[in-house]
Specification:
alpha/beta, nine-stranded mixed β-sheet, 397 residues, globular, 17 helices
Length: 397
C-alpha cells in the first residue's frame, strides 16, 4: 500500500504544473539550510512564499507542502536532500524547479553515495529536471558544481555561476572578516546591480551562500535595495550552523549541526578570523560524520591540519575523535594545548574551568554525538556568570 506522502504525488504534481510563480530548489553537500534561509528572507520582501521545515528535504515530505502551491504564495523555496540517487531523482522530478541551486559538492555525503563523483551525479539530478527556461545557479569555484552547467545547457536552461573571483558571473569583492561584527563584502554581478553587504556571517562558506542567494534574487527580479535590506536585517544564521553567541565574558560559535573534513577547514578558518578580538581561540571537536572509508585516518589527517592552525586550545570529545586528537598532538607546537575526553560530561566539566574571559570558543561535531549539549552547558554557565568577569573585547587586541 502506498504511503500517505506518496499518495500526494499526483496532487503535488498538478499543483506544480499550474503554479505560475518561481519554484527555487537548493541542494549541495554543505550550506543548503543557510542558503534557503537567505533566499527566503529576500523573497519574502515581495510577498508570501511557500516553504517547508528545515528537516523536510525528500520527495515524500516535499509533496505535503507542494500541494499548497498557489494563492497566496508568489514563490516557493525548497531544500532538497536524499539518501539515494533514486530519491534525488524523485524529488527533482516532482519539483521541476525554475531555479536550481547547487551550493557545492564535497565529502559530506560519501557514505550515502559512495564517492564525491557519485554525490555530484545525485545532486545534478536537480539541474537535469529544470524547466526548459529555467536557470542553474552553480558554485564556480567547486569543480563538481561548475561542470553541471553543461547539464543545464543540454536541457535548454542557462547556467549562472557564483564565486569569489571575477571569473564568475556573480562574485564577491573586497571581503572583510570583522570578527564579531560579521563580514563585509561587495557583490558584483553580470546579471544585475552590485550590492554592498555587511552581514552577520562569519565564514567564507557563508559568503558563498549569500552569493547564491543574491543570484537567485536577481534572477527572479528582486531589487537590489530589497536584497540588501533583507540580508542585513531579516537574516540570521540557523542554530548549529555557525551562529555566534556573545555571552559577555566569552564568545561562542555554534557549529554543532554536522562535521566533516570539508566543514572543519571552513570552521577552523572562521575561528582564526576572531584572533584579533580574542585572548585565546578554543576549538572543541567531536567525531566527524559521513567521511567514507578510512575514518580513523581521515580524522588523524584533520588533526594534522588543525595542528598548523593558530588555535590555542583543541579539545576532542568521544572515542571517534581520538585519532583527531592524536593527529593534532603529533603536529602541535609547545604553545598549543590538545586535550581528549571520552564523554561530553567530562568535556563539559573541564571546559567550564578551562575557558577564560575573552576567549572565543567554537564547538563542532556530528549531530549523532549531540555536541549541542555542550553549547547549552556553556551558555548556562557563562550567561549565569555574565557580570562576574571581564567582557570579551569588541575591538582588536
Amino acid at each position: 500500500m502506498p504511503s500517505f506522502e506518496s499518495s500526494l504525488f499526483p496532487e503535488a504534481a498538478r499543483a506544480r504544473e499550474v503554479f505560475g510563480g518561481p519554484v527555487v530548489a537548493i541542494t549541495g553537500s554543505n550550506g543548503k539550510t543557510t542558503t534557503k534561509r537567505m533566499i527566503g528572507a529576500i523573497l519574502s520582501r515581495r510577498g508570501k512564499i511557500l516553504t517547508a521545515p528545515y528537516e523536510c528535504a525528500e520527495a515524500g515530505c516535499l509533496a505535503r507542502y507542494m500541494v499548497h502551491l498557489g494563492e497566496p504564495y508568489w514563490a516557493a523555496v525548497f531544500k532538497v536532500g536524499a539518501t539515494s540517487l533514486d530519491g534525488m531523482k524523485q524529488a527533482a522530478t516532482l519539483l521541476q524547479p525554475d531555479v536550481a541551486v547547487v551550493t557545492n559538492v564535497g565529502e559530506a555525503h560519501m557514505v550515502r553515495f559512495g564517492s564525491v563523483q557519485q554525490t555530484a551525479e545525485a545532486k545534478a539530478q536537480l539541474i537535469a529536471n529544470l524547466r526548459p527556461e529555467g536557470t542553474a545557479v552553480l558554485n564556480k569555484d567547486n569543480e563538481f558544481t561548475s561542470q553541471m552547467g553543461t547539464v543545464a545547457e543540454s536541457k535548454g536552461a542557462r547556467a549562472v555561476k557564483f564565486g569569489v573571483s571575477s571569473r564568475a558571473d556573480v562574485w564577491a569583492a573586497d571581503i572583510e572578516h570583522l570578527g564579531p561584527d560579521g563580514t563585509r563584502f561587495r557583490v558584483v554581478s553580470e546579471i544585475g546591480d552590485s550590492v554592498d553587504l555587511h552581514m552577520p556571517i562569519y565564514s567564507l562558506g557563508d559568503v558563498y551562500n549569500a552569493l547564491a542567494a543574491v543570484t537567485v534574487a536577481q534572477i527572479v527580479g528582486v531589487p537590489s535595495a530589497a536584497i540588501k535590506d533583507a540580508l542585513e536585517n531579516d537574516f540570521s544564521l540557523p542554530s548549529g550552523r555557525g551562529r555566534l553567541l556573545d555571552l559577555g565574558r566569552i564568545r561562542l560559535i555554534d557549529d554543532t549541526y554536522d562535521a566533516n573534513p570539508q566543514s572543519l577547514v571552513k570552521t577552523s578558518a572562521t575561528l582564526v578570523n576572531f584572533a584579533r578580538y580574542s585572548r585565546r581561540l578554543v576549538m572543541v571537536l567531536g567525531e566527524m560524520d559521513q567521511v567514507g572509508e578510512n575514518t580513523a585516518e581521515r580524522h588523524r589527517m584533520s588533526g594534522h591540519y588543525l595542528a598548523k592552525m593558530p588555535i590555542d586550545v583543541i579539545v576532542c570529545v568521544g572515542d571517534g575523535a581520538r585519532p583527531l586528537a592524536e593527529g593534532a598532538t603529533a603536529g602541535a607546537g609547545v604553545h598549543k594545548a590538545v586535550l581528549w575526553f571520552d564523554s561530553l560530561e567530562e568535556a563539559s566539566d573541564v571546559l567550564r574551568s578551562l575557558i577564560r574571559d575573552g576567549d572565543t570558543v567554537l564547538v563542532e561535531g556530528s549531530a549523532k554525538l549531540n555536541m549541542a549539549t555542550l553549547i547549552e552547558d556553556l551558555v548556562a554557565h557563562f550567561a549565569d556568570s555574565r557580570s562576574a568577569g571581564t567582557p570579551a573585547p569588541t575591538e582588536p587586541l
